[in-house]
Amino acid sequence: MFLKKSTGPRTVTLPDGRILTQADLPAPNTRWVASRKAVVAEAVEYGLLTRDEALSRYGLTEEELDCWVEAIRGHGREALKVTRIQSFRQL
């Protein structure tokens, strides 16, 4: 597999010790599931992907990306699962 030359880092180490690489990023036309949302949110959060790159590559709105990042910060990856939204919703 060949990677396009990118201006940012090719890998980042997450606080839990996992390594996230450019190859781990989902395809632009992906079907969004919790694990793929988490990868994109973590890539933005830890500098693997800039916010603008994520928005344009995946066709996301700022609110969507912000929600994903905040959900992970506040409740972990589980908060991105559609079936768990009620559990983590703020009143």
How does this structure look, described?
This protein has a two-stranded antiparallel sheet with strand order 1-2. The radius of gyration is 13 Å and the shape is globular. The chain has 91 residues and is mainly α. Helix content is 42%, strand content 7%. The chain has one domain: Winged helix-like DNA-binding domain superfamily/Winged helix DNA-binding domain (Arc Repressor Mutant, subunit A), CATH 1.10.10.10. Helix 1 (34-45) packs across helix 3 (62-75). The N and C termini lie far apart (46 Å). It has helices spanning 34-45, 51-58, 62-75, 85-88, and strands at 11-13, 19-21. Pfam families: DUF1153.
Which percent bin holds the helix content?
A: 40-55%
- Are there runs of 5+ residues with pLDDT below 50, and where? none
Please, what is the oligomeric state?
single chain
The tally of beta strands, per DSSP, is 2
Shape assignment: globular
Radius of gyration: 13 Å
Strand content: 5-15%
Describe the secondary-structure layout.
Elements: E1 11-13, E2 19-21, H1 34-45, H2 51-58, H3 62-75, H4 85-88
Antiparallel strand pairs: 1-2
